[in-house]
Amino acid sequence: MVAWMDKVCGAVDGTVKSLSDEPPIDMSDPSKLKTGMSEWLGTKVAAVDRSISDLKGLENGPHPRSKELATAAQEGMGQIKVLLADTKSKLDSATDETQAVTAFTEMASKAGELEKAGAGVQRKFDETGLATAARKAPGCKGLQASPPTP
């Protein structure tokens, strides 16, 4: 069970970590700004696709509610993918630097939605009775929400 949870968390955690890196963009060159941001988003969309594919392969896990958890994680990744792909689309159709920056700023302003998606998957660990296995799985450590402060 712990090994399976480790795979589930690994499929999510790698993508989440990849989203936290800064796009390697030369902000002083407007012509490269849009291209650089678009390429960065493209690599992130591909990473999310890999996560979703990995999670699909984990639906038949060792727990009666494995599919439920894997599907919830896929849905969370799907929300992230929609946000990234939408931003990339807006960016690619931007006709000037201001529109490009606006598209990226809108994405940044929706970071809270991504956190909610992650929290939803965390809740599913508890609901499916897999939280104990998640706590023991090394790949889940990066996903653990910090305990609420009293």
From TrEMBL:
<feature type="region of interest" description="Disordered">
    <location>
        <begin position="130"/>
        <end position="150"/>
    </location>
</feature>
<protein>
    <recommendedName>
        <fullName>X-X-X-Leu-X-X-Gly heptad repeat-containing protein</fullName>
    </recommendedName>
</protein>
